[in-house]
Amino acid sequence: MAIGTWGRRDTLRLAAATALGLPAAAHAQGGRNTARLIVPYAPGGTTDVTARLLTNRIAEELGQTWVIENRSGANGAIGAQEVARSAPDGLNLLYSNEVHLVLKFVQRGVPFDAVTDFTPILRTVRIPYVLVGGANHIHQPDARALLAAVRQEPNRFTFAGSTLGSVGQLGAAALGQKLGAEFTIVAYRGSGPAVNDLVSGAVSLMFAPLGAVQPLIEGGQLKAFAVTAKERVPLLPEVPTMVELGYPEMVFEGWTGIWGPRHLPAEKVAAVHGATTSALRDAEIVRRLAALGCAPILESSDDFTRLVEEEQARNGEITQAAGIRPD
């Protein structure tokens, strides 16, 4: 697969962060009762928005002040590195997404191990993904016709991914393997630019986070062909799953979660897990998540730890089979 590359500026920023050594404790202005929740992306995306929905309730449950700090760059690696280097005192936590487990397979120079350098606390939110194309540019009437066309003439279709290592990139790579097709996957710097090019026809298709494209589907600018969840999603009840279409392995979903640095004590893991789970059960938070096309995930820290290991192994298999190498 031909993959778009990340920029030189990202490489330089990551190198600078490594050379300087990032702070290992919460900022002095907050004292010992202030925790930083580091979101390794710019404000406004699904990861950032869901973090902000949860933070006040978590802080209230814990009797702390929680401050969200956006440390974007290098596809999430800069912010994650800061947490990996921090003390295991519960005052520096990472709120990231599934890309965290893919980075080492698609990006050179990642300065941490996503499994051994972090303590998984819990996943928070499930994010459905949907295969979409520009309504004025993709003329196949349904998913079966579209997939047949992609199989027959793969050179006519390009796929967008919101970032290197995104569900969009992995989903497109996996689809290429299933169809025996070779097509170009373009990595963007976020869902916004990717979706803009999708609407304009500059790129053909995308496995996109539902929250980012639902208004455009409703407005008629994008056409939804299939979802990559195990079951149909409530906001798109007429859109089939890839499983229904005969691709049982094509189950990909986005998600967000909270990690601490490695060796985070069990009592701190339990405290954050309990407070976050309470927030995820709050009816108003659930309602606001549903409006974004998201749903809470209620699972244990052990569940998250197992998933981290399984997903990283699966990601390695997909990228290797697709010929994706760290760039």
From TrEMBL:
<feature type="signal peptide">
    <location>
        <begin position="1"/>
        <end position="28"/>
    </location>
</feature>
<dbReference type="InterPro" id="IPR005064">
    <property type="entry name" value="BUG"/>
</dbReference>
<keyword id="KW-0732">Signal</keyword>
<dbReference type="InterPro" id="IPR042100">
    <property type="entry name" value="Bug_dom1"/>
</dbReference>
<comment type="similarity">
    <text>Belongs to the UPF0065 (bug) family.</text>
</comment>
<protein>
    <submittedName>
        <fullName>Tripartite tricarboxylate transporter substrate binding protein</fullName>
    </submittedName>
</protein>
<dbReference type="Pfam" id="PF03401">
    <property type="entry name" value="TctC"/>
</dbReference>
